[in-house]
TrEMBL record:
One of the record's GO molecular function terms: transcription cis-regulatory region binding
Pfam families assigned to the protein according to its UniProt record, in alphabetical order: LacI, Peripla_BP_3
Keywords: DNA-binding, Transcription, Transcription regulation
Organism: Geobacillus thermocatenulatus
Coiled coil: none
Record-linked InterPro entries: HTH_LacI (IPR000843), LacI/GalR-like_sensor (IPR046335), Lambda_DNA-bd_dom_sf (IPR010982), Peripla_BP_I (IPR028082)
The protein's name in its UniProt record: LacI family transcriptional regulator
Length: 339
């Protein structure tokens, strides 16, 4: 015997229209009523026809995730699996599926996402990055398509819902940690300067030096990819200087891992010769040797809040623009020592 919405409504003692709204996860229905209806659905073995529902409502119940580069490269960095885990949790709670879009180059990513949107394959997208003059973000704004950015938008910040950390303060905190331990020659190893996260952390680093009366030395600022190889290249460049730094602010744990490897190959010890403060506090920071002092930026929460905010935008066109700041904290481990 086929179980219908009417059967569920009878069991839960509600109107059939209420069951439909519960299936659509309408915010107008109380959590108590939703729970009662879901229990009735479970008892009767009723499974909503989500395909029919999406066709009727012209909604796909799918969120698009846009990576900053190819999945092969991006997923080497533990930041992305963890932020996607947060997105997935929020999406699962609201019965949304995920679709990922990647590309080797910026133009590839742009074209694939535009195809995704024009084909109505997703209801909204989350950008896992924020870069300067991003044409994809401009396209999304122009066509009034629901999207959320993880990071700080380059322009029109007040017009874009975004989830971010206070990366200026985080960069400052990281540099101050080394300054407080007597380091004066402190370098900054950042990612691509096109990304706002790199710019903000570098700004905080520079502010900490200025407040401490230390010189800002351009040769101490190196940019590389957010990968282990990027860290290795950056460290070799810094060690070739007449006065190599004794302390490093490194914008990513994976880059810091490459730096540890390079220092070890050159017979230098951490923290005996060089102290390191990293970012993200991924499992790599805990498992590296020595374990890395790292700034925890709440990666899972960044993803969770981004997906939650996007679904709110999708289901309510009048949802206001939000700026959500996830707190950060510095986790002390063994990669720093007094100079």
């Amino acid at each position: 015997m086929t179980v219908t919405i009417k059967d569920v409504a009878k069991r839960a003692n509600v109107a059939p229209s209420t069951v439909s709204r519960v299936i659509a996860d309408s915010p107008r229905i109380s959590e108590k009523t939703k729970q009662r209806v879901r229990e009735a659905m479970k008892e009767l073995g009723y499974h909503p026809n989500f395909i029919a529902r999406s066709l009727a409502s012209q909604m796909t119940q799918v969120i698009g995730i846009v990576m900053p580069s190819s999945a092969d490269q991006a997923l080497q960095n533990p930041f992305f699996p963890e932020v996607i885990r947060g997105i997935s949790k929020a999406a699962h709670e609201k019965r949304y599926a995920l679709q990922m879009s990647t590309g080797e180059k910026e133009n590839d990513i742009y074209e694939r996402v535009v195809e995704m949107l024009q084909g109505r394959r997703v209801d909204g997208v989350i950008l896992l990055y924020s870069r300067q003059n991003d044409k994809l973000m401009k396209y999304l704004q122009k066509h009034d398509f629901p999207f959320v950015v993880i990071g700080k938008p380059h322009q029109k910040v007040e017009q874009v819902t975004h989830v971010d950390n206070d990366n200026v303060q985080a960069g400052k905190d990281a540099a101050n940690w080394l300054i407080a331990r007597g380091h004066e020659r402190i370098a900054f190893v950042g990612g691509n300067p096109q990304y706002l996260v790199t710019v903000d952390r570098q700004t905080g680093y520079a502010a900490a030096l200025q407040e401490a009366g230390l010189p800002y030395r351009s040769e101490y600022v190196v940019h590389a990819e957010f990968l282990q190889e990027g860290g290795q290249e950056a460290m070799k460049e810094l060690l070739s200087l007449p006065e190599p730094p004794t302390g490093l602010v490194v914008a990513d744990d994976l880059m810091a891992l490459g730096i540890l490897k390079t220092l070890d190959e050159m017979g230098l010890g951490v923290p005996e010769d060089v102290s390191i403060v990293s970012f993200n506090n991924t499992l790599l920071a805990e498992m590296s040797r020595p374990p890395l002092t790292s700034v925890d930026i709440g990666i899972f929460q960044l993803g969770y809040e981004a997906a939650k905010s996007l679904i709110e935008k999708i289901t309510n066109q009048n949802e206001p623009i939000k700026r959500i700041i996830i707190p950060h904290r510095l986790v002390e481990r063994g990669s720093c020592a007094p100079h």
